[in-house]
Amino acid sequence: QVQLVESGGGLVQAGGSLRLSCEAAGRTFTFDNYAMAWFRQAPGKERELVATINWNSGTKQYADSVKGRFTISRDNAKITVYLQMNSLKPEDTAIYYCAVAKGPWETRSFNEYDYWGQGTQVTVSS
């Protein structure tokens, strides 16, 4: 079993920045064996991939809507994945979830993620 705890969400004005963190824990969980991702879900919309990173930070993928503004990173020693969000827009408002992939390589497929955090709210005011 894996527990994921997100933090760093909040209310920010358009153009501002936030940094989300997600710390993983689990008695038999080896963090650096797995790719990680951030998803988000806005009211009335489906959950969508924001960014994903492979096991050693060698490859990353982003949603087109956040490219150039968001950066995903991970610190395997701290068993934590981050999402730096800059130039935030009102349309970035959503609950943000981190997730653990089933394997070491990043993937855009929702079904390839086994464990999910509870989510952290990000609200961007105009």
Structural summary, described in words:
The protein has 126 residues and is an all-beta fold. Helix content is 0%, strand content 49%. It has no helices and eleven strands. It has strands at residues 3-7, 10-13, 18-25, 36-41, 48-53, 60-62, 70-75, 80-85, 94-101, 113-116, 120-125. The strands form two sheets. Strands 2, 4, 5, 6, 9, 10 and 11 form a seven-stranded mixed beta sheet that branches. The chain has a four-stranded antiparallel beta sheet with strand order 1-3-8-7, with no helix packed on it. A hairpin with a 4-residue loop joins strand 7 (70-75) and strand 8 (80-85). The protein is globular.
Measure the end-to-end span.
40 Å
The beta-strand count equals 11
How is the main sheet built? 7 strands, mixed
Q: Provide the succession of SSEs.
A: EEEEEEEEEEE
Helix coverage percent of residues?
A: under 10%
On the 0 to 100 scale, the average pLDDT is 95
Structural class of the helices, strands and pairings? mainly beta
Q: Any idea what the shape is?
A: globular
**Share in β-strands:** over 45%
Radius of gyration: 14 Å
- Which stretches are low in confidence, meaning pLDDT under 50 for 5 or more residues running? none
Helix run count: 0
Give a short overview:
With about 130 residues, the chain is mainly β. It has strands at about 5, 10-15, 20-25, 35-40, 50-55, 60, 70-75, 80-85, 95-100, 115, 120-125.
List the helices and strands and how they pair.
Layout: E1 3-7, E2 10-13, E3 18-25, E4 36-41, E5 48-53, E6 60-62, E7 70-75, E8 80-85, E9 94-101, E10 113-116, E11 120-125
Parallel strand pairs: 2-11
Antiparallel strand pairs: 1-3, 3-8, 4-5, 4-9, 5-6, 7-8, 9-10, 9-11
